[in-house]
Amino acid sequence: MSKSVIHTDQAPQAIGTYSQAIKSGTTVYLSGQIPLVPETMNMVSEDFAEQAHQVFKNIQAVCEAAGGTTADLAKVNIFLTDLGKFAIVNEVMSQYIKQPYPARAAVQVSALPRGAQIEIDGVMELPE
Fold first, then answer.
1. What is the pairing mode between strands 73-80 and 103-108?
2. Looking at residue 95, what DSSP letter applies?
3. Average pLDDT over residues 29-40
4. Residue 23 belongs to what H/E stretch?
5. Which stretches within 1-128 are classed as H helix?
6. If residue 15 lies in a helix (H) or strand (E), which one and from where to where?
7. Under DSSP, is residue 63 helix (H, G, I), strand (E, B) or coil?
8. Where are the domains of the chain?
9. pTM, two decimal places
């Protein structure tokens, strides 16, 4: 099975040795997205809710570039520097992803790239 690189200018460019996503068959593996604004590659703001919204916008853009939507996400991993902000994540996520929700994990970490407070990666299964 071949794999192909997914790329869009509607999400931040990779800031390391990775692709925004890789498609293998009907499965798409999305790299972690932090709250960078694609046009400037700067953090959207220091406000956690705004960071969460930007991350979901970035995830949405990569899903669309791969030929799917956030409804096709099968699994997401959410990394937070403060697990106490998880209720905000739930509220923001509900604006971008509807039921049935993907499987999910949430983990508190000590730090994220560029001082981000949230990062999300995921796996998407495209309709055949």
1. parallel
2. H
3. 98
4. strand 21-24
5. 48-65, 86-96
6. none
7. helix
8. 3-125
9. 0.96
